[in-house]
Amino acid sequence: MKAKVNQRLASKSMAFVLAGGRGSRLKELTDRRAKPAVYFGGKTRIIDFALSNAYNSGIRKMAVATQYKAHSLIRHLQRGWTFFRAERNEYLDILPASQRVDEHRWYLGTADAVTQNIDIVDSYDVEYVLILAGDHIYKMDYEVMIQQHAESGADVTVGCLTVPQKEASAFGVMAVDESRKITDFLEKPANPPEMPGNPGMSLASMGIYVFRWDYLRALLLADAENPKSSHDFGHDLIPDIVARGGAMAHLFDDSCVTSGENEKPYWRDVGTIDSFHSTNVALTEFTPELDIFDQSWPVWTYSEITPPTKFIHDEEGRRGSAISSMVAGGCIISGTEVRESLLFTGCRTHSYAELFQVVALPNSVVNRSAILKRVVLDHGVVVPEGLVVGEDPEEDAKWFRVSEGGVTLITQRMLDLRADKLG
């Protein structure tokens, strides 16, 4: 008798990552790149978390749909995610909006991005399709969610966060019964429904969906013929399935990946300057909620070949040091005091400068005697000698972007305009 091959469901699945959004609330940080391509955590990009979750879950077929200012994202994927081998039945396809269906038509919505690439998904020969957003920070074993979907027989399984009811109004909220069947989908409701048996808590959609491919394929083709549809999962397809009684909720608490250092489920949308800054700075804490040092569930990315970071000068007021900070490779901290800050690859800081809660993206330069407090420096910014930012919000706002939470974003264009006006 021939033995059956026991395959993990992840090996029968593909991940379709939606990575075309700008993320306009990040302001000038997304002037040159889509939100999923924004840097995070010292050396990674935001999209690396969704892709790493898929890879670590055993999924070896992936597609990334891009649209808004995709060059930075595509270059990162080409440099950091080219280790898939077709001879092992592994694929990562980059799918820019390329008018494949109609020469006048880009991706009209999240569902349309999949519809326009049905032939490519067909070629993967998979049973399950996992739809992912490429712009959130979290660690999750997708195999657990796919397993629940297969066992429940649902038409769609929706990944859900457990959030306090008072905070749920900022999300799309799922009303569920005791079996976790979704009974209603409410977009940013004023009075979010509570979870059964968990008073004070609600279920918020993560924008993660699992479908059987044959079911989703038929659904997408029908949606494409509907002139009243906006061709979006969250606005059209999911509410329709909920109304027909075919949607189940999957709790992130059941599949989140934690380390021994911190067992609390972690998920963040770094969609504003304040959240981007605070989430990066939080990584410098003694025991951060997100453990990026956990090698059992690594965050894969493109790793440049860089020399070790160097700290130089040891004089009073001119000592290269970094306290409660993270400093990536290739940096030179020359006579600068760095505290509670995160410096990405290739940054340079010079004598007598002071950095406090600074998030410096790659190749930033901070010149002599500059004082920066609660600042985000865009890629390649050169901070002029003696610039003081973070002590006078009104003065800062004349030249730079100051957030509601008091974080100052500095880009090179802002510095150039300032220099022109000051002569």
From TrEMBL:
Alpha-D-glucose 1-phosphate binds at Y107, G172, E187, K188, S205. PROSITE patterns: ADP_GLC_PYROPHOSPH_1, ADP_GLC_PYROPHOSPH_2, ADP_GLC_PYROPHOSPH_3. It is an enzyme of class 2 (transferase). The record marks Q67, W106 as: Could play a key role in the communication between the regulatory and the substrate sites. Pathway: Glycan biosynthesis; glycogen biosynthesis. Residues 307-410 form the Glucose-1-phosphate adenylyltransferase/Bifunctional protein GlmU-like C-terminal hexapeptide domain. One of its GO terms (biological process) is glycogen biosynthetic process. Residues 15-284 form the Nucleotidyl transferase domain. Keywords: ATP-binding, Carbohydrate metabolism, Glycogen biosynthesis, Glycogen metabolism, Nucleotide-binding, Nucleotidyltransferase, Transferase. It holds the Pfam family Hexapep_GlmU. Its EC number is 2.7.7.27. One of its GO terms (molecular function) is ATP binding. It catalyses: alpha-D-glucose 1-phosphate + ATP + H(+) = ADP-alpha-D-glucose + diphosphate. Signal peptide: none annotated. Homotetramer. Belongs to the bacterial/plant glucose-1-phosphate adenylyltransferase family. Involved in the biosynthesis of ADP-glucose, a building block required for the elongation reactions to produce glycogen. Catalyzes the reaction between ATP and alpha-D-glucose 1-phosphate (G1P) to produce pyrophosphate and ADP-Glc. NCBIfam families: glgC (TIGR02091), PRK00725.1 (NF001947). HAMAP family: GlgC. This is Glucose-1-phosphate adenylyltransferase. It comes from Pacificitalea manganoxidans. The lineage of its organism: Bacteria, Pseudomonadati, Pseudomonadota, Alphaproteobacteria, Rhodobacterales. The gene is glgC.
